[in-house]
Amino acid sequence: MPVEILIHPSELKAAKGTARLTAQVLQHCRLWPGEDEADFAPLRAALGDRPAYLLYPGKNAQPVEQTRLPEQAQLLLLDGTWGKTHKILKLNPWLDALPRLSFAEAPAGRYEIRKAHRADSLSTLEATAYALQKLEGCDPEPLYRAFEALKQSQLAHMPEAVRLRYRSEKR
Predict the structure, then answer these.
(1) Known InterPro entries for this protein (predicted)?
(2) What pTM was estimated for this model as a whole?
(3) Distance, CA of 135 to CA of 131 (rounded, Å)
(4) Helix, strand, coil % over all residues of the chain, rounded to 5
């Protein structure tokens, strides 16, 4: 299933960002930087007439655990902080018109080196891995191996006091 990630421009060079890593691991995944409709016009053209589904929580979202998508379906994700992704959503009414998917039972996040303000916050890589596993039966391990390597690399470059702080916050 093709995965299209609409990424906030401020996330493009983020060292801890997982959207780029997701696109490197998955064969059919593209990043689309931007915020407003004009920025995403090329994406909309690329989507064509194939059905597209937005993975983003909402009151009418269907749980990925109980959903079967058509063969030509495409999965769209928003990458950025909750505030930035909400802004992208509000600036792009066409996204709000797409059928939404979400998680009935979100897995526990494994992103120890990032502060999350919500218990159900997942990185883009984690959300993609879980969604593809539930929707298509894909093996998420290649994504999780790359994710683990990213985390270990980030931890190796942190001062010891910072590493300890992240570890103590996760207990």
Answers:
(1) DTW (IPR005636), DTWD2/TAPT (IPR039262)
(2) 0.84
(3) 6
(4) 45, 15, 45
